[in-house]
Amino acid sequence: RWQKIFMIPLWSKMAVFWNKMFLTIIVLLIVLFLDAVREVRKYSSVHVNEKAANVNSSAFDHIQMKLFRSQRNLYLSGFSLFLWLVLRRTVTLLTQLAKEMASHAALETQVNDATEAAKKYMAENERLQE
């Protein structure tokens, strides 16, 4: 039943669109991840913290807040990138499995038909030999 549903021509047209969307989302997540890495490196440098501590304590707190936010963005973008790639791989494997199961079922029916034909011919051959 599911094969009939997924063999509708509309799905193949949508697949091209969703593949482009997938690549767009991956590029966006990579850009966000690299931006978060840059921000973390910028705010975690020792010299920035020392200058801020000498100037004003609220400036030090402000830099620590920006460091926290950049680390949070790094973890979120990295984890979402990882999960998106895992999801894509899972969908790819499920698609391959479905195709293999369909081909296995077709081969199994072919084998059964060939076996029945062979039994029929063997029975006919035995009858002719008698």
Q: Can you tell me about this structure?
A:
The protein is mostly helical and 130 residues long. It has a domain at 7-94. Helix content is 95%, strand content 0%. The protein has 4 helices and no strands. It is rod-shaped. The mean pLDDT is 85. It is found in: Endoplasmic reticulum membrane; Membrane.
Rounded to the nearest angstrom, the distance between the terminal CA atoms is 48 Å
* Helix content estimate: over 70%
Low-confidence stretches: none
Task: Specify Rg, calculated over alpha carbons.
Answer: 31 Å
**Strand/helix succession:** HHHH
Q: What does the largest sheet look like?
A: none
Please state the average pLDDT score. Answer: 85
Q: Count the E strands.
A: 0
Structural class: mainly alpha
Shape: rod-shaped
**Helix count, DSSP H or I runs of 4 or more residues:** 4
Portion of residues in beta strands equals: under 5%
